[in-house]
Amino acid sequence: MQRLRVRYAKRGRLRFTSHRDISRAVERAVRRAGIPVAYSAGFSPHPKISYAGAAPTGVASEAEYLEIGVTTPCDPEQVRFGLDESLPPGLDVLDVVEAGPGGLADRLEVSDWEVRLPGADRELAEVAAEKFLAAGTVEVERLTKKGMRRFDAREAVLGLTVSEGTDRTAAQVHGQPCVILRMVVRHMTPAVRPDDVLTGLRLVADFAPPVPPEVTRLAQGPLDARTGALADPLDLDRDNTRGGEAGPASEHVAG
Amino acid sequence: MPVESIFHRLEALLPKVQKPIQYVGGELNSTVKDWDSADVRWALMYPDAYEVGLPNQGVAILYEILNELPATLAERTYAVWPDLEALMRAEGVPQFTVDAHRPVRAFDVLGVSFSTELGYTNLLTALDLAGIPLEAVRRGEDDPIVIAGGHAAFNPEPIADFIDAAVLGDGEQISIAITEVIREWKAEGRPGGRDELLMRLAESGGVYVPKFYDVDYHPDGRIKRVAPNRAEVPWRVHKHTVMDLDEWPYPKKPLVPLAETVHERFSVEIFRGCTRGCRFCQAGMITRPVRERSITTIGAMVENGVKESGFNEVGLLSLSSADHSEIGDIAKGLADRYEGTNTSLSLPSTRVDAFNIDLANEFSRNGRRSGLTFAPEGGSERMRKVINKMVTEEDLIRTVTTAYSQGWRQVKLYFMCGLPTETDEDVLGIADLAKKVIKAGREATGSRDIRCTVSIGGFVPKPHTPFQWAGQADHETVDRRLKALRDALRGDKEYGRAIGYRYHDGKPSIVEGLLSRGDRRVGAVIRAVWEDGGRFDGWSEHFSYERWMAAAEKAGVDVDWYTTREREENEVLPWDHLDAGLDREWLWQDWQEAISGGEVEDCRWTPCYDCGVCPTMGTEIQIGPTGRKLLPLTVV
Question: Cβ–Cβ contacts within 10 Å for residue B195, how many?
Answer without folding.
Answer: 12
